[in-house]
Amino acid sequence: SSLSTAQIREKYLQFFESKGHLRLPSYSTIAPDPTTLFTVAGMQPFKEQFMGAPAVFDGVASKRVTTAQKCLRIGDIENVGRTLRHCSLLEMLGNFSFGDYFKREALTWAWEFLTSPEWMGLDPEKLHATIYQDDEEAFAIWTQEIGLPPERILRFDADENFWPADAPKEGPNGPCGPCSEIFYDRGHKYGEDSWADYAETRESARFLEIWNCVFPQYDRQEPLPDGTPVLKDLPFKNIDTGMGLERIATVVQDVYDFYSNDVFAPMVAKVVELSGQPYEGPQNVSHRVVAEHIRSVSMVIADGSVPSNTGRGYVVRKILRRASRHAYLLGLREPSLYKLVPLVVDKMGGAYPELKDNQAKIEATIRAEEERFLKTLEGGIQRLGGLLSGMQKGATLSGEDAFLLYDTYGFPVDLTKEIAEEYGITVDEASYAESLENAQNIARAGSKYGKSELFGANQEALDGLSPTQFVGYDDLQAEGEVMALVGAGERLEHLSAGS
Ligand code: ATP
Ligand code: MG
Ligand code: MG
Ligand code: MG
Questions:
Q1: Cα-to-centroid distance, 177 and ligand 2 (Å)
Q2: What ipTM was predicted for this assembly?
Q3: pLDDT by residue (tens digit) across 19-50?
Q4: Which H helix or E strand runs over 240?
Q5: Which domains, and CATH codes, for the chain?
Q6: Ligand 1: residues within 6 Å at CB?
Q7: Rounded distance from Cα 244 to ligand 1 centre (Å)
Q8: Which of 86, 87, 252, 298 is most buried, by CB atoms within 10 Å?
Q9: Global pTM?
């Protein structure tokens, strides 16, 4: 199919309008409540309606609402470039019922939208579902009413099939409930694993989660002193669904991943043009990180967030520096990322006019941050040059020195190695790893982050973060490269401010 991302978004909203839903514009990426810094799901602006508040929007009463909501998930930033399925910024297509329709309509409409030739026209044979362990109601709807064979349905516990994930145990307090998710089988090209394997692995490039249909019917309360979860019934049963637009576009357009879809492909092409580095597919992590992150920060800047050392701004800075680091890896030595902004505006500005309205500000903000970051890197290069020129050819740079460069200047060890090589000097990687691990242990001991990817980084935790804390190490480890640039520039400023 040749449906563009914009057409898929529009079709989704039209489909649910045809089912009696009120279409509302996306809310801001700035979270409407303090459980998170950024909006993480389409349902978040509607928590009060799920709790029983009147469903009236700008004077229009409607118990059925549909939106395409821009969301930012801090927990997925490091996934970009690592998995095929995560963006840091995503558009969540959602349909919501505030005490109106429930499971039957939610699941049958989802099926109709995905399979009807008039809408997405996907092959029904490729669709699979998961349900909450003992949700026989959902099982019966899937098998008896929709006709999904039982072997294409997997049952999971609250870790997977409750939203927010594991809410009974972990929170946050408020509306939550069991869910049923829809997966698309992308075929052997992506893996030889089977649907049955997914029950064990819960990770697959082949079976892609596209749609989460949540049945919020509980209001989570503070657990009892012994930790027992307390789920109170909500005044009525609700529906909250979320389908990632980027994911459904990838499936419908039958492309390998996000980076070949109609939104990202032009951005990746621009990165190729700017850097002169060809893009050959998933192995080219830097192109992908740059494209995704610039779309992401463009949107949050349009919504009024700016790079800074605390709270939301800290996250903006983190994303921008991660993009800058990858631009540097691509050989870009001048501010260049801001040149991708017009492409974001071109592809997304129709649905999100705030991008158009703020284009100049977005470009200037990104450019200024790139300049700051490049200076930080240059400081590290000078320091390293000083160290290396005092050493003999064939000597070894201590791991501690390499670590200090990283810690003070945010200077990635692979870059240190590359430059040291030019002097005929090697880096003691074992002792570097040791220094890093020591710091990680210290960081972990002092970490305020919870386990939940969505709600772990709350306002309080980020606001309370001192610029000298080692927040990036877990990311680094996960990524297998040293790139916790977060806070590096701030540490430098902190030091040079004489503290
Ligand atoms: P995953 O297991 O792949 O991380 P999730 O279970 O965390 O996804 P949900 O919280 O259920 O995702 O969100 C609803 C839908 O939003 C998902 O089914 C998916 O289509 C989409 N989605 C979630 N996270 C992302 C992301 N980082 N990038 C793109 N789409 C996403
Ligand atoms: Mg996730
Ligand atoms: Mg999931
Ligand atoms: Mg999910």
A1: 17
A2: 0.99
A3: 999 999 999 999 998 888 999 999 999 999 99
A4: strand 239-244
A5: 5-258 (3.30.930.10), 263-496 (no CATH)
A6: 73, 76, 85-87, 90, 92, 209-212, 242-244, 246-247
A7: 6
A8: 298
A9: 0.84
